[in-house]
Specification:
- With about 190 residues, the protein is mostly helical.
- It has one domain: Fumarate Reductase Cytochrome B subunit (Up-down Bundle), CATH 1.20.950.
- It contains 6 helices and 2 strands; from the N terminus they run H-H-H-H-E-E-H-H.
- The protein has helices spanning about 10-35, 40-55, 60-75, 85-115, 135-170, 175-180; strands at about 120, 125.
- The chain has a two-stranded antiparallel sheet with strand order 1-2.
- Strand 1 and strand 2 form a beta hairpin.
- The longest helix is centred in the last third of the chain and has 36 residues, at about 135-170.
- It is elongated and about 55 Å long.
- The relative contact order is 0.14.
- It is a multi-pass membrane protein.
- Keywords: Cell membrane, Electron transport, Heme, Iron, Membrane, Metal-binding, Transmembrane, Transmembrane helix, Transport.
- Belongs to the cytochrome b561 family.
- This is Cytochrome b.
- Its cofactor is heme b.
Length: about 190
C-alpha cells in the first residue's frame, strides 16, 4: 500500500481555489442584492445584480460534481499526527458538509429561479434546462432554504479559513501548504 501524499494534486488545488473564488464572489453579490437592493427603488439594477449572481454561482453545480469525483478517486494528504482523533473526524465531517451544501446551494438557487419564472443562466453562455414550472408555493419553500443554506455555508467557510490559518500560523503544520504547494516530484 502506498503512503498518502503530502500535498493535494494540482487538479484538486485548482478546483478548491476556483470554487472558493466563485463561492465567495457569488456569496457577496447575493448578500448585497438581498440586503441592500430593493425592487421598488433599484428594479433593473437589482435584476442585473441577481443575474450576475446566478451566472457566477451556477458553475459550482458542475465543479462540485467534478470535485467530489476527484476527491473520491485521489488520495488526500493525511491530517497532522498531533491532531486528536475527534478533531480529525470533525475536519472530515465539515468537509463533506461543505460538499453537500455546495451541491445544495446551486440546486436550491435553480429551483428558486425556475419557480419564480426566471432562467438559471451559466456564465452568460446558456441557461440550464428549466425543470419545473413557475410556482409561488415552491418559491416560498426554496427561497428561505437557499438563503439559510448560504448563511450556513458562509459560516462554515469562515470556520474553514480560520482553521487553515490556525494550522499554518499557530500549529505550523502542513495543512494549508498541502492546498497551496506542490510536491517537487510526482
Amino acid at each position: 500500500m502506498s503512503a498518502r501524499p503530502q500535498y493535494y494534486t494540482r487538479t484538486a488545488q485548482i478546483l478548491h481555489w476556483l470554487m472558493a473564488a466563485i463561492f465567495i464572489t457569488a456569496w457577496f453579490i447575493g448578500f448585497y442584492s438581498g440586503n441592500f437592493l430593493n425592487y421598488d427603488t433599484d428594479g433593473a439594477f437589482k435584476g442585473n445584480v441577481i443575474t450576475l449572481h446566478k451566472n457566477i454561482a451556477t458553475p459550482i453545480l458542475f465543479l462540485i460534481v467534478i470535485r467530489i469525483f476527484w476527491r473520491y478517486t485521489h488520495p488526500t494528504p493525511a491530517l497532522p499526527e498531533n491532531m486528536s482523533a475527534p478533531m480529525k473526524k470533525m475536519a472530515h465531517v465539515i468537509h463533506w458538509i461543505l460538499y453537500l451544501i455546495l451541491l445544495a446551494l446551486p440546486i436550491t438557487g435553480c429551483l428558486f429561479s425556475w419557480s419564480a419564472g426566471h432562467p438559471a443562466p451559466v456564465l452568460y453562455l446558456f441557461n440550464l434546462p428549466t425543470l419545473i414550472e413557475p410556482n409561488p408555493q415552491i418559491t416560498a419553500i426554496v427561497k428561505p432554504i437557499h438563503v439559510y443554506l448560504s448563511w450556513f455555508a458562509g459560516l462554515l467557510i469562515v470556520v474553514h479559513i480560520l482553521a487553515a490559518l490556525k494550522h499554518h500560523f499557530v500549529d505550523r503544520d502542513n495543512v494549508l501548504r498541502s492546498m497551496t504547494s506542490q510536491q517537487t516530484k510526482d
